[in-house]
Every structure is written in structure tokens, then in C-alpha cells.
Amino acid sequence: MRCVRMRVGKLTNAELDEIVFGQIKLKNPEVLFGAGLAEDCAAVKTDQTVLVTTDPITAATFDVGRLSVDVSANDIASSGGKPFACLLTIIVPPDAELQTVKDIMTDAVRRADEAGIDVIGGHTEFSDAVVRPITSVTMFGTCKRAVKSSGAKVGDAVMVTKTLGIEGTIILAAERGREMGLTDEELAEAESLKEQLSVLKEGEVLAGLSSVHCMHDVTEGGIFGAAAEISEAAKVGIEIYADKVPFLPITDKITKALGADKFRLISSGSMLFTSSEPQKAIEALEKAGVSAAVIGKITKEGAFAVFGNEKVAVTVDADELLKVGKK
């Protein structure tokens, strides 16, 4: 029988030096100083508007560090900003290995470096309050024009970038792919979608278009949940044409096999936005190498999905990942 070491509390100073501080190299001029032993805060200074957001990762069991950075950075991009710094909290259960903390930290710092983001602080701890690793990232960004989810206007085209269900496809393939009988090629295809999780590129392009009135990151609850959120925030109606929503064949296969609703599957990697000049937005995104499609319109009232001749009300519900993901 293997003896499992149980541990609670913070990492030692030596562990912090090796696992956390030793991996962080500050690069952005907005950061005056960052994390360090006995430092209670980081300091940032900028003359631009600062955007701030926070998001936990609670359902994923792999690539947690990368997801933590991408999900919060996407929120900044969806408001028209460029992320430059973040705080990262990592909480692991008492029976976790120290290597687990190191792997999450390494993964997060690598992704932050790729995106030009400084990890300037956070917290690491073993705790019996969790049963699997939990992370939370607070992200900071700057912007020239803040774009709000509540900015949608009646008559706007409703649009999305890339395809829907990207994050959910990655997670479900990794956790239940073999069980579903996915081939090695299909598993590799799903894993490759990690490269599409960021919406920083489309956020930068769309923020520069005055005809784009609303931007929203499609996360938990999928496209239907995001549509309902925009409708409520902007106090307008919205119609989503179900047959126009782009999904990859691998997403269709996974959701059908698990009996999941693909329209309510977590979709980090896709941005929902509205525009009075949809073709202009499509062309600008294409130049940046990002696909986009018109999937609906902003109306006066009501949030609906249109399936042929049938209209179905859409609301913010629990994500399908919580229903069919690994327990």
C-alpha cells in the first residue's frame, strides 16, 4: 500500500523560491514590482484605463495553468483591452504532490509569457477545503476603448469567431475520449484546439472597429448562455439561428455520444460580438487569420434560439460540462 502524505498550509519559503518566484521574469513597464518573499502587494502604474477581471478554474483536471491564464485574459480582450499582469492563486488538496503545484505554475507562467503577461503575485496552499486543484486568476489590462457586453444595439448582427464548444471539446476528449471510442487522430485533433483558446487576436481587431458595439467571451453556458447574458445586460432582444452556429465535427461527435447540448457547452476560444457592419468585421478578422460568422440578430425584446420554424427561449443555465464531465 502506498503511503499518501497529507499536508495543509502554505508552501515553505524555499519551495516558493523554487516553484513560484524562480519562474517569474517581469517584462512590462506598467509593473513597478511584483511577487516576492514578505511582499504583501504588487505595484502597477499606467496612464490608461485599467480593466480588471477574475475567474476560477474548477472543472478542468489538465492544463489548469494554461486555462487559468487564457480564460481571464480572454475577459480583458472581450472588453477591448490588452492584458499585462495577473495574480494567480493555486489551492490543492492535502494529498496532492508538490509537483502538482509546480506543474500548474510552470504551465501558467509559460502561457503568460507567450501572451506578454506578467505574473505579479498570488497565493499557493494545500487545503482540505478542496478535493482537486483549484486555481483563480485576477487579470489586469489596459484599453483605449472599453467595449461593454451591454453595448448591443437593435439591428446589430450577432456574430461569433472561430467555432463554438472549443474548451468543452478539449476537456471532454481528454477526460472521456477513450470511453467514447475516439480514435488517436480524434484525440490529437481535440488536444490541438488548445492553440485556439485565446481570443486576444480577435479582441484587438474588433476593439478597433467603431461599428462593433458589444463583445462577450463565450464561457460557461455556451452560446445560448452568452446570448441570454447579452440580452439581459443590454436590455434588448436576441435571436440565434441554430443552423448558423459553427461547430467542429469532433464537437458534434462528442456531444452526441454523451447526450450533451452543444449549444450550452463551455466555449472559451470563441468571442460573441455584435456589429452594425458585419462584413467589415469579417474582412478585418480574416486579415488577422480569424474566421467569423453571422449567427443571429439583435431585436427589441426576448432571447430566443431559432430551430427552423420553432423559437425556443434561451436562458443562463448550468454548463453541460458539469453534467457530463469527469466526476
Structure report:
The protein has ten helices and 14 strands. It starts with 8 loop residues before the first strand and ends with a helix. It has two domains: 135 residues, 60s Ribosomal Protein L30, Chain: A; 176 residues, PurM-like C-terminal domain (Phosphoribosyl-aminoimidazole Synthetase, Chain A, domain 2). Helix 2 packs parallel to helix 6, helix 4 runs antiparallel to helix 5 and helix 4 packs across helix 8. By secondary structure, the protein is α+β, with helices and mostly antiparallel strands.
Q: Secondary structure elements and their pairing?
A:
Elements: E1 9-10, H1 13-20, E2 31-33, E3 43-44, E4 49-57, H2 64-77, E5 82-92, H3 98-114, E6 118-126, E7 134-143, E8 157-161, H4 166-180, H5 184-192, H6 200-207, E9 212-217, H7 222-234, E10 237-241, H8 249-258, E11 271-275, H9 278-287, E12 292-299, E13 303-307, E14 310-313, H10 320-324
Parallel strand pairs: 5-6, 10-13
Antiparallel strand pairs: 1-6, 2-3, 4-7, 5-7, 8-11, 8-12, 9-11, 10-12, 13-14
Helix pairs in contact: 2-3, 2-6, 4-5, 4-8
